[in-house]
Amino acid sequence: TSPRCRTPPARPHTRPISRQLRLTEEEKRLLAQEGVTLPSTLPLTQAEERILKKVRRKIRNKQSAQDSRRRKKEYLDGLESRAAACSAQNQELRKKVQELENRNGSLLRQLQALIKRTSNKAAQTSTCVLV
C-alpha cells in the first residue's frame, strides 16, 4: 500500500486520563461548611460543577466585599486626615485674623490720637495767629 492510504493503527478504547481536582483551603472550607464533598479527580458532573462555581463565586464576592471595605476605610482615613489638616489650618488662620484685628485696632487708635493732636495744634496755631 502507498503511504497516503495508510490507516492509523487501531487504538483500544481508553478512558480520558483523569486530572487531579485542586481546591484552595478556602474552597475546601466552604464545601465542608455546606456539607458537600467533591471527587478528587476531574471531570465533575454538572451538579458538582454548579456547586464548585457557587463556592468560587462566594469566595470572589467575599474578597470583593473585603476589598470594598478596605478601600472605604482608606478613603475615610484620607478624609479624616484632610479634615484634621483643614481644622489646624483654620485654627492658624483664626489666630492670624485675631492678631491682625488687634494690630488694626492699635493702628486705628494711633491714627485717631495723631489726628487729634494735629487738629488741636492747628486750632491752637490759628488761635495764636488771631490773637
UniProtKB/TrEMBL annotation:
<dbReference type="InterPro" id="IPR046347">
    <property type="entry name" value="bZIP_sf"/>
</dbReference>
<keyword id="KW-0805">Transcription regulation</keyword>
<protein>
    <recommendedName>
        <fullName>Cyclic AMP-responsive element-binding protein 3-like protein 4</fullName>
    </recommendedName>
</protein>
<feature type="domain" description="BZIP">
    <location>
        <begin position="51"/>
        <end position="114"/>
    </location>
</feature>
<dbReference type="GO" id="GO:0005634">
    <property type="term" value="C:nucleus"/>
</dbReference>
<keyword id="KW-0472">Membrane</keyword>
<keyword id="KW-0175">Coiled coil</keyword>
<comment type="similarity">
    <text>Belongs to the bZIP family. ATF subfamily.</text>
</comment>
<feature type="region of interest" description="Disordered">
    <location>
        <begin position="57"/>
        <end position="76"/>
    </location>
</feature>
<dbReference type="InterPro" id="IPR004827">
    <property type="entry name" value="bZIP"/>
</dbReference>
<feature type="region of interest" description="Disordered">
    <location>
        <begin position="1"/>
        <end position="22"/>
    </location>
</feature>
<keyword id="KW-0238">DNA-binding</keyword>
<keyword id="KW-0812">Transmembrane</keyword>
<keyword id="KW-1133">Transmembrane helix</keyword>
<keyword id="KW-0010">Activator</keyword>
<dbReference type="GO" id="GO:0005789">
    <property type="term" value="C:endoplasmic reticulum membrane"/>
</dbReference>
<keyword id="KW-0539">Nucleus</keyword>
<keyword id="KW-0804">Transcription</keyword>
<dbReference type="Pfam" id="PF00170">
    <property type="entry name" value="bZIP_1"/>
</dbReference>
<dbReference type="GO" id="GO:0000978">
    <property type="term" value="F:RNA polymerase II cis-regulatory region sequence-specific DNA binding"/>
</dbReference>
<keyword id="KW-0256">Endoplasmic reticulum</keyword>
<dbReference type="InterPro" id="IPR051381">
    <property type="entry name" value="CREB_ATF_subfamily"/>
</dbReference>
<keyword id="KW-0735">Signal-anchor</keyword>
<dbReference type="GO" id="GO:0000981">
    <property type="term" value="F:DNA-binding transcription factor activity, RNA polymerase II-specific"/>
</dbReference>
<keyword id="KW-0325">Glycoprotein</keyword>
<feature type="coiled-coil region">
    <location>
        <begin position="76"/>
        <end position="117"/>
    </location>
</feature>
